[in-house]
Design brief:
Number of strands: 13
Helix content: 25-40%
Strand content: 15-25%
Structural class: alpha/beta
CATH class of the largest domain: Alpha Beta
CATH superfamily of the largest domain: Glycogen Phosphorylase B
Oligomer: single chain
Strand order of the largest sheet: 3-2-1-4-5-6-7
CATH topology of the largest domain: Rossmann fold
Number of domains: 2
CATH architecture of the largest domain: 3-Layer(aba) Sandwich
Order of helices and strands: EHEEHEHEHEHEHEHEEHEHEHEHHH
Radius of gyration: 21 Å
Shape: elongated
Number of helices: 13
């Protein structure tokens, strides 16, 4: 049986779904060392019996060294370079190592300096880079990875699960936001612009928001906006049957798996151009609209466009989203990872 060691930060349901596919369909045993989940998103996970979860705070750096030095793994997969203990332990490996990250290349001075460090101290530890999209692939090349060793498709939602969602028409049309209440998500301008549109031109629309975070106390109370707080995945899946379109107005979103989830569920998308996942799952005008990040006026224009569509047009866009969502799946993810195992 093949074995993989995963050294991660915070686990998410979509990552577990991909790991399940790898373990069950490719006969792999996975040891996963990870940090506690974010308090703002306390997900409860179900996973394959082939996956063993190990809390990072229960494993010393010396223990990590010994786990890797015993030569029992066929691949080591590290999510990012934030943990020096992870990186130091990888030096003892005798199997291939895979660096996964979603840092998008923006050409800043900080990033340019980091590539100097990366080429000398980071790249020598890894054979492969596993990235979600184009901007991350550029960063990988800057770090010294050859094109043939850069693998895309690093993030996938549980496509089969979200594809089962069947949308049911409600009394009013529902625009859904799912994410943290935090500045980089641009939620306060979203609340304000939606409220104005619903008050003046679109009284048949509601905004339903799922999540919590540091700006929860600043949320706009409006008869047109419903704040539901955090939802566990099963509850979210059920709630998704009641919507008509999805919005993610982030000013910083290296990828955004939630956009993939709603695309797979058949939602038209309204995404800022800072959402990395838009390159895979949004075709402007075909299955939704893209707008300029950190710009309330362009957000308002995009919202007005989606809210102006009739039921048939929304359904056509949703069908196009479902097709685009199939381009990356846990199956493609698992195949990529399995191909890198020795």
């Amino acid at each position: 049986m093949k074995r993989i060691l995963v050294l991660y930060k915070e686990l998410a349901g979509y990552f577990i779904a991909c790991l399940d596919e790898l373990c069950e369909q490719h006969g792999v045993q996975a040891d996963v060392v990870a940090y506690p989940v974010n308090a703002d998103a306390p997900f409860q996970f179900k996973h394959s019996e082939r996956i063993r979860l190990i809390a990072r705070n229960t494993v010393s750096n010396d223990q990590l060294d010994r786990m890797i030095a015993d030569n029992s793994y066929d691949l080591i997969f590290t999510g990012g370079w934030f943990d020096k203990g992870y990186l130091n332990a990888i030096r003892r490996r005798t199997c291939p190592a895979l660096l996964g990250f979603d840092n998008a290349w923006n050409g800043s001075l900080k990033q340019q300096l980091s590539t100097i460090y990366g080429r000398f101290f980071l790249k020598p530890l890894f054979e492969y880079a596993f990235v979600p999209g184009t901007a991350q692939a550029i960063f990988a090349r800057k770090l010294g990875f050859a094109e043939k060793h850069i693998v895309r498709g690093a993030y996938s939602c549980d496509v089969s699960r979200f594809s089962q969602v069947q949308l049911h028409q409600q009394t009013k049309n529902r625009l859904i936001y799912a994410g943290r209440y935090s500045p980089e998500k641009f939620v306060l301008p979203l609340f304000n612009e939606f409220h104005k549109l619903a008050e003046t031109s679109f009284p048949n629309w509601e905004l339903h928001c799922i999540g919590t975070g540091p700006q929860w106390a600043e949320r706009l109370e409006s008869p047109h906006i419903m704040h539901h707080g955090f939802m566990q995945p099963d509850a979210l899946l059920e709630f998704m049957q009641t919507g008509n379109a999805f919005v993610l107005p982030s000013t910083f979103e290296p990828w955004g798996v939630v956009a993939h989830e709603f695309a797979a569920a058949g939602y038209p998308l309204v995404l800022s151009d800072a959402v990395g996942a838009s390159e895979a799952f949004l075709e402007h005008g075909k299955n939704g609209f893209r707008f300029q990040a950190n710009n309330a006026e362009t957000l308002k224009e995009a919202l007005a466009k989606i809210m102006s569509l009739n039921a048939h047009q929304l359904q056509e866009m949703g069908a196009a989203s479902r097709v685009l969502a199939q381009s990356i799946t846990p199956k493609t993810w698992a195949y990529s990872v399995a191909s890198m195992m020795r």
